[in-house]
Write a structure and sequence with these properties.
The structure is a single chain. By secondary structure, this protein is an alpha+beta fold. The protein is built from 13 helices and five strands. The chain has a five-stranded mixed sheet with strand order 1-2-3-5-4. It is rod-shaped and about 155 Å long. The N terminus is likely disordered.
């Protein structure tokens, strides 16, 4: 088919040229079907959009050749009379069309066991090209079928043969676009050469773009892998930090217990032990005295020492386990404490609980209750307040106790000395909080009241 095909040849050309360019921009990383190599990393690391594109290309490689062969056959049948195809040419075209369908059926089954470029893939590509070349020689509209050669070179041929396969397909496409093969006369050859140059240029350009896309896909996959490794390391660091926090909290508890034991030992040594020693001394004097009046005097002293020691013992026990928490939870105990303090001092006081109430560790409850007692005692002795507010807040991982008054205030940098009635003052409250890894902050200004805020870890009661 030569010179009399110049009219029809102009029609398949515009249809085939865009198809020649499109497949070369396809990245192998987007083809998870048989024949592709996933250079962009594991599928789990690919974006969802890339997976959808890969599925689309898989469907095209499986069913596209059948569809394009059917379209080419219909176009050839519709133009056979206009192109003056003989009976022999029609019979040859029919036989080659059937051969193309059989070839595609064979490869559809064989490709499942050949995911990489192989000799079988190269053989299939060569046979496909030969059939397409012969069909376009008979009718240039078979270029619809020949264009699939652009789409399969990367998947089917070894790297050294890819360019050869693309150039061979470019010859077939250029022949169909120039009016059929062989070209008719010098003008036909010039047109064929020009179209061949255009097709080769498109092959080079889109092959380069495909290579750049492959490099970008590899870089993206590497970045995704690095992010996954970073996330793993970050999660490990978070786990280690949580374990360290738990360890520090346990150490803080143990340190608090040890500190309380030292405090209790010091109190026993300074009070009860000394009282018992004094009682023994008085009784020893009674055993050797001969004057009844002197004996009664020493016995009275021994009784007084015994009563004092008993009071010290009770005080030590109360400091270790507050009586107020025996039957009540911390919020209930604080509510009763505030009400009792308000009744005794005549100062208007309110108590508020925020957050979800949870059962707390005994040491946490005892510490917050003692801090509240000391803060209220200081307010009653020094503040001269008209209103007091106490707030207990349950938050995520910590507790806060706030005691605010509208009293006279003071300079926090010049803390008042420890009172003669006993108690530990602000320093004692800080020490109690520190024993369980907590803190106490004091805000005050002369004439504008005082706010004491204790913040401790929320350690739940161990059932």
């Amino acid at each position: 088919m030569t010179s009399d095909l110049t009219g029809p040849a102009a029609r398949p050309g515009p249809e085939a040229a865009p198809l020649a360019a499109a497949p070369l921009a396809e990245s192998p990383a987007a083809e998870p079907l048989a024949g592709e190599s996933l250079t962009a990393g594991p599928p789990a690391a690919a974006p969802l959009a890339g997976a959808r594109v890969g599925t689309g290309w898989a469907a095209f490689h499986r069913y596209g050749p059948y569809a394009l062969l059917g379209i080419a056959t219909l176009a050839a049948c519709a133009t056979a009379r206009a192109l003056h195809m003989s009976r022999y040419e029609l019979a040859a075209a029919a036989a080659l069309t059937v051969a193309g369908a059989v070839l595609q059926l064979w490869w559809g089954h064989a490709a499942r066991t050949r995911p990489e470029p192989s000799k079988a893939g190269a053989c299939y590509y060569a046979l496909h090209w030969a059939l397409a070349f012969a069909l376009t020689w008979l009718n240039p509209f078979y270029a619809f079928y020949a264009v699939t050669g652009y789409f399969g070179a990367e998947r089917l041929l070894p790297r050294r043969l890819v360019r050869i396969g693309l150039l061979a397909t470019a010859v077939t496409m250029s022949g169909s676009q120039s009016g059929g093969l062989p070209p008719d006369g010098p003008v036909g050859w010039v047109v064929f050469g020009a179209l061949f140059g255009v097709n080769v240029t498109l092959v080079i350009v889109f092959t380069h773009l495909a290579a750049l896309e492959d490099e970008r896909a590899v870089e993206q996959a590497e970045t995704i892998r690095e992010l996954e490794h970073t996330n793993v390391r970050l999660q490990q660091a978070l786990d280690e930090n949580a374990a360290l926090h738990a360890q520090l909290l346990v150490q803080a508890r143990e340190a608090g217990v040890a500190d309380e034991r030292r405090r209790l030992a010091a109190e026993i040594h300074d009070t009860i032990a000394q009282g018992l020693a004094g009682i023994i001394t008085q009784l020893q004097v009674v055993s050797v005295t001969r004057t009844p009046d002197a004996a009664r005097e020493h016995l009275a002293r021994a009784q007084e020492l015994a009563r004092h020691s008993l009071g010290e013992a009770r005080r030590s026990v109360q400091n270790l386990s507050p009586v107020a928490l025996t039957d009540d939870s911390l919020p209930e105990a604080l509510k009763k404490l505030v009400a009792q303090w308000s009744a005794e001092t005549g100062v208007r006081a309110g108590f508020t609980v925020t957050g979800t109430v949870e059962p707390l560790h005994d040491e946490v409850e005892a510490t917050l209750l003692r801090i509240a007692q000391e803060a209220l005692a200081n307010t009653g002795r020094h503040a001269g307040a008209a209103r007091v507010g106490v707030t207990l807040s349950y938050m995520d991982g910590e507790m806060t106790l706030d005691v605010r008054d509208d009293g006279r205030g003071f300079d926090p940098l010049a803390l008042p000395p420890r009172s003669a009635e006993g108690g530990f003052g602000l320093g004692g409250m800080c020490a109690r909080a520190e024993r369980i890894a907590g803190t106490v902050a004091v805000e005050s200004e002369l004439g504008h009241g005082t706010a004491v805020s204790a913040r401790v870890p929320l350690v739940r009661h161990e059932l």
